[in-house]
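Treating backbone geometry as a discrete language has practical consequences that deserve illustration. The amino acid sequence and the backbone structure tokens for this protein are reproduced below.
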Amino acid sequence: MQTPVTSIYQPMNTHSTPLIPVAQTIQNIIHDALISLDITIDKQDIHLEHPNLDTHGDYTTNIAMTLIKQTEDFSNPRQFAQAITNQIQNTKHKILDTITVAGPGFINFSLSTDFFTKELTTIIKQQDNYGSTQWGKGETWLIEHTSPNPNKSMHLGHLRNNVTGMAISNLWEATGIRVIRDCIDNNRGIAIAKLMWGYLKFAHQDNKHITDINYWYKHQNEWLTPEDVNKTPDKFMDELYVQASNDFKNSTIEDQVRQFVVDWEAENKETWALWETVLKYVYQGQNKTLKRLGNKWDKVWHEHEHYKQGKQFVEQGLKTGVFKKLDDGAILTNLQKEFSIPDTIVQKKDGTSLYITQDIALTKLKKETFKADKMHWIIGPEQSLAMKQVFAVCDQLGIIKYDNCIHIAYGYMSIKGQGKMSSREGNVIYIDDLIDQTKEEIRKILDEEKIGSDSLNQTSETIALGAIKYSILKTGRLTNTSFDIQSSIDIHGNSGPYLQYTHARCHSVLIKAQEQNIQDTKYKIQNTKYSLEELAVLKYLYRFPEVVTHAAQEYAPNHVCTYLYELAQRYNTFYNKHSVLNAQDDQIKAFRLQLTQATMHTLKNGLSLLGIKAPQKM
């Protein structure tokens, strides 16, 4: 009976279906057999998959069932599949061991042990480069991720954005794509005005509620600093933002705060001085958090540097009919007819700009600066309509085609046992606090004597970050997830620490082999000589480049997580049943050491793509 199969690839619009060399070879073999049977088909339409059970082979195809209607020579798909199989078997192929027909017409291929032997050697030779492919070579893709508003500490929502964006961009680079990582610093507008109000009104040293910005400008030394209250700069400002948000509910206060935006755009010097002061504090805290996460940006765009250009596009759009002015002076898009997207305001009646205004200008800057083939935005699902509106307007203005702009959404993240969080209400979970809590739990279970007290802090930080990142990435990107510290650090479960521990185990075995001067000699695998547990690892390692490319195509780091967890399970099953260093035969010992080395490299590379470090000791 044919079991369900695991898909290898879903091709993207701009690329043909990519396969690693062995799969391409099988694809060619099938294609040649079909030609011999007078069946014409494009190679790219021959789809290969992995059976869920190793006993059913390494690849399977349903090509006979797909093409049965194109031939009158066979009465059913199974008969057709057998004819294809016979054609293949008439020609010797070194990479194949057996070919069988299963179920209603699946063709199963088992690869030769010679192939697996060579692949093992390839992994050990390539080491850190194993898993890389050339699927996206020649492409330039831009990805905007994280982009925390500079009015508060970074919290759980920023965490999932950052971890997801970094992992996806790492995957793209592994497939040969030139990746540009950028973010937008939304450092102006009503949210920042609230922060300015919060600092002005609630941070006076004597608790005086002063709201005269001119007084502040002349007496800045009277206002508190983060050091004065022993708080991190971003948390200090975060609390003031919450106070300002509550104050903002008063209509009179709201008018005063909104006036900050108008005064800022008028380049009032006192307003700009207050603006620079509050941003300085937030940046200091956010940069510390981003450094812990291992964040990377190639470019940071600051909204205040280009927002005026957005207004120029509004004027251009008015002249060309892309936009229209309403009776009250506000300016509206015209998207419904061409894109079936609801219209939106691009400039308020008072002449101030909105997020979409600066997004238009920024998209133009990105395109001109990096000439990317595709642009991607990692933003929460609640912004789906807003992003479509930006893409459509940019298409209308001739900046970039709608189809070359992709919104990569992600699900919401919460903490197990916590209710709904809101930065305005001040009940969010900060990233640094979450890392510190997880780190403290990790320290409780680490073997300090084995690791060493000097490196205990760094190792616990590495494992804590691995636990958090893997917990986020192992679920589907669009799936809402609830973070649970205890399950995330479970050394025996589907967790980052479990993978890190398996890597450390492999490293430990290899170090002991070095110490015992055990040589990693050449060997030849005999299929009947090696155990099922050994072959389970050997016959899984080669799939890694496929998984990397598939994950890159689908913007789905969870595919890498699933693969690494399965690989770790297979290796640990082997390790727990068979001795590596005390194997009864030098040839077997050498093979097991190479199997261990290949597993270690693959785990390390996979974790690295996820933004997770692989410690050598745990």
The radius of gyration is 29 Å. DSSP finds 23 helices and 15 strands in the chain.
